[in-house]
Amino acid sequence: KSFVEDSITDDWRLFRAKLVAQEQSQGASSNSQMDPFDSLFRVHNEDSINVSPKTPQLTKDRWAHQIDHLETGCVLIANENLGGIFYGKVLLVVDHSPEGTTAIVVNSIFPGGLREVSTNQGSVLDDQLLDAFPTTDVAYGGNVRTDEYSLLHGFGEVDGSKKITSGVYFGGEDALVHGVMNGRFDPSKALFVKGKATWYPGRLQAEIDSE
Question: Which in 46, 101, 107, 199 has the greatest CB count within 10 A?
Answer without folding.
Answer: 101
